[in-house]
Amino acid sequence: MNTYILLFLTILSGILIGKIKIKNFKLGSSGTLFSGLLIGWYTTSQFSNNLEIINSMNKDFKQFFLFSLILFISSVGLIASKDLKSIIKKYGVKFIIMAFVITLSGFLATLILSSNNKYIFVGLFSGALTSSPGLATALETAPNFEKDIISGYSFGYVPGVLAVIFSMYLLPHILKINVNDEKKKLLGEINIKKEDAKNFDFLSYSLVIIIGILFGNINFNFGVVSFKLGMTGGILLSSLILGTMGNFWIFNFKMNKNILKNLQEFGLLMFLSSVGLRSGYKTLSNLNIETLYLMLYSFIIAIISISVGVIFGKYILKINWIILSGAICGGMTSTPGLGAAIDSNDSEEVAIGYGATYPFALIGMVIFNKILMMIK
């Protein structure tokens, strides 16, 4: 089975699904996640008796997933970096507050919903907030319950992703937020830079990715709290920081926005497709009453986390919706959500809220996972 055909068939069909408009709502790039789930389920089911082919396909899908993350996150970070200083100066500590408000809300919701098998719900908590570091912390703390934790994470992940994606498209309509007005207000609040470079420097782009991957592998240890930013967090921070720096020696990190936007869009389409292709069979083939309840619980946990974050960020911290939508996705550690937020708002400034909140959300996930494991 040619996995490249499956990938681009998923992208093709997903784009078509994303163009379907119901009133003011459409899935956009997120349509590829749904087409990936269906194609992944159908293709894998055809080879269910051939473990060698399935393992080979999953290996390819994982490589697509990792490469697409690199393209998407690096381009998003470089585009958003031009406004980083102004937004951090205005909102600063609010991003830290948002990260802990969102992760704490998810923790409390998980605590309320959890039943007799707490380890499944520990995994469900990380899945609902799409947090791989949270999963790693849980597995490290309770290695004897790996099967339950991974099972909870697996069934929690897709509903968690869908909750963030739908929220990014629907919340502006529910809360009657005028996105164009919010963009104008943001323009007045900070110094948005309009100039754009004409070139794209592959030398500098490669350095951004290399530094990001290395940075993401550093283990930050603060006593009881230990975490890594991972490839996503590392590349996002390196692209934001180096992009803000602009020029260094022979490296020029100011790159053409249109080229970066094309890389961003392709990376997102490829990322969502690979998530669907990897998750489709396990998600759709294991549907029963118990797993449907777990998926529903995950969706509820995610919605509660998002709702509390939105209420707190919009009405208490008074954060502009463009930046707040990114902060919500960062608090949920949701890369697909970031793509949906950028698409629904048609603004790359979303990524700054994401990048500033994301690292603190990882810390929150590690802390609350450890607490959840200690509660009987």
TrEMBL record:
InterPro entries hit by this protein: AAE_transporter, YidE_YbjL
Transmembrane segment boundaries: 28-44, 64-81, 93-112, 119-136, 156-175, 202-223, 229-251, 263-281, 293-312, 319-339, 351-372
Query: Where found?
Result: Cell membrane
Task: Offer a single GO CC term for the protein.
Answer: plasma membrane
Query: Would you say which domain of life the source belongs to?
Result: Bacteria
- Topology relative to the membrane: Multi-pass membrane protein
In its UniProt entry, what is this protein called?
Answer: Transport protein
Q: Which organism is it from?
A: Marinitoga hydrogenitolerans (strain DSM 16785 / JCM 12826 / AT1271)
Question: What taxonomic lineage is listed for the species of origin?
Answer: Bacteria, Thermotogati, Thermotogota, Thermotogae, Petrotogales
